[in-house]
């Protein structure tokens, strides 16, 4: 059928992409060598073989270990540039990249080194790839709100180099309301606000991300299907959901892609989108996610492909003059 060709050529936005999750084993080894960092794996193959996850935490442990090779501004640039080249090949016209500063500042890497390297890659993508790219600073929810507040303070001198804040890492036991004050501060600064909710955590976390954090998008949100009143709210309010099918499969949020709730979300009128989350760890970039999802779910056809691409472009935080180029 023409569906795979349609998927390839549709312009789309990627709204849920952890830049540290785009770090391929080959680049991890190259950066380890360049920086003199010792890795507990003998080879690229041995590292990739360790990518067998049972839940979110089993992934996070290896994902934070992989990020330990990032030390210099050029390392952050190289990582983001490799992703943005890959995104361009998937017809991504807009990418909003999550980054986890606390993963790096905890290891003694200055915040400025992280954000300057990432931001330079975003600017170069706009100039030479025609990909509009911006950064969203994520707080690690397994750490305290005091640490998140300190991270926001550290980021203030670079306020113009990122467009919003998010919330990621271990969801269970760390509800959105734990971060009420830091999100209120971020909103007062005019930053966009998003949060991971309803990935492993219950629908109650989606409610509190909306009501307490007042987020503009929900990252994942797939467990919303368990709560009909929440589904009605998300549909009525037009809240975008940044869904990550291969991530959900690899982290055992769903047993099989054929069981994925994406068709249910779309049929209920939710503004769902497809995203890669951590492509180097979950076996695929954006179009790989699209292809695998459409192949596994016969309910998804051309109408759903157009809707998903349109949702992604409508859900971006790109300035209106940038959005005008997509219509
Ligand atoms: N950090 C990177 N990927 C994540 C995910 N899928 N959920 C929570 N935190 C993350
Ligand atoms: Zn994520």
Structure characterization notes:
The chain is an alpha/beta fold and 327 residues long. It is 48% helix and 14% strand. It contains 17 helices and 8 strands. It has an 8-stranded parallel sheet with strand order 1-2-3-4-5-6-7-8. It catalyses: adenine + H2O + H(+) = hypoxanthine + NH4(+). This is Adenine deaminase. Residues 11-327 form the Adenosine deaminase domain. Zn(2+) binds at residues 16, 18, 196, 277.
What's the main sheet like? 8 strands, parallel
Individual helix count: 17
Q: Tell me, briefly, the overall form.
A: globular
The assigned CATH architecture is: Alpha-Beta Barrel
Structure ligands: adenine, zinc ion
Strand order of the largest sheet: 1-2-3-4-5-6-7-8
Helices and strands, in order, run as: HEHHHHEHHEHEHEHEHEHHEHHHH
Features:
binds zinc ion; binds adenine; globular; alpha/beta; 17 helices; TIM Barrel; eight-stranded parallel β-sheet
What's the short story on this structure?
With 327 residues, the protein is α/β, with parallel strands linked by helices.
What topology does this entry show?
Elements: H1 3-9, E1 12-18, H2 25-35, H3 44-49, H4 56-66, H5 73-89, E2 92-99, H6 101-105, H7 111-128, E3 132-140, H8 145-155, E4 164-168, H9 180-188, E5 192-197, H10 203-211, E6 217-220, H11 228-237, E7 240-243, H12 245-250, H13 262-267, E8 271-274, H14 279-282, H15 286-296, H16 302-314, H17 320-323
Helix pairs in contact: 5-7
Bound molecules: adenine (ADE) and zinc ion.
The site of zinc ion has 6 residues, from strand 1.
GO cellular component, one term: cytosol
Site (Important for catalytic activity): 220
Cofactor: Zn(2+)
């Amino acid at each position: 059928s023409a569906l795979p060709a349609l998927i390839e050529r549709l312009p789309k936005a990627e709204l849920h992409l952890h830049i540290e999750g785009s770090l391929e084993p080959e680049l991890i080894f190259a950066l380890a060598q360049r920086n003199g960092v010792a890795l507990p794996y003998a080879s690229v193959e041995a590292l990739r073989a360790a990518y067998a996850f049972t839940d979110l935490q089993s992934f996070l442990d290896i994902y934070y270990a992989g990020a330990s090779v990032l030390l210099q501004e050029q390392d952050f640039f190289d990582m983001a540039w490799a992703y943005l080249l890959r995104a361009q090949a998937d017809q991504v016209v807009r990418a909003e990249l999550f980054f986890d500063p606390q993963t790096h500042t905890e290891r003694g890497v200055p915040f400025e080194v992280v954000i300057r390297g990432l931001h330079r890659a975003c600017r170069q993508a706009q100039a030479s790839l025609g990909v509009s790219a911006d950064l969203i600073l994520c707080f690690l929810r397994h750490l305290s709100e005091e640490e998140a507040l300190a991270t926001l303070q550290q980021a203030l001198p670079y306020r113009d180099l990122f467009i919003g804040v998010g919330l990621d890492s271990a969801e269970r036991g760390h509800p959105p309301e734990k971060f009420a004050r830091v999100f209120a501060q971020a909103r007062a600064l005019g930053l966009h606000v998003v949060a991971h909710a309803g990935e492993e955590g219950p629908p109650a976390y989606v409610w509190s991300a909306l009501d307490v954090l007042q987020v503009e998008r929900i990252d994942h949100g797939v467990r919303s299907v368990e709560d009909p009143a929440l589904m009605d709210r998300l549909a009525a309010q037009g809240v975008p959901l940044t869904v990550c099918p291969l991530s959900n499969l690899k982290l055992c949020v769903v047993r099989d892609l054929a069981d994925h709730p994406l068709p249910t979300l779309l049929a209920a009128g939710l503004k769902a989108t497809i995203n890669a989350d951590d492509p180097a760890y979950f076996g695929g970039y954006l179009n790989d996610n699209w292809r695998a999802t459409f192949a596994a779910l016969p309910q998804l056809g051309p109408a759903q492909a157009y809707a998903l691409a349109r949702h992604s472009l409508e859900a971006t935080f790109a300035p209106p003059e940038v959005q005008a180029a997509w219509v």
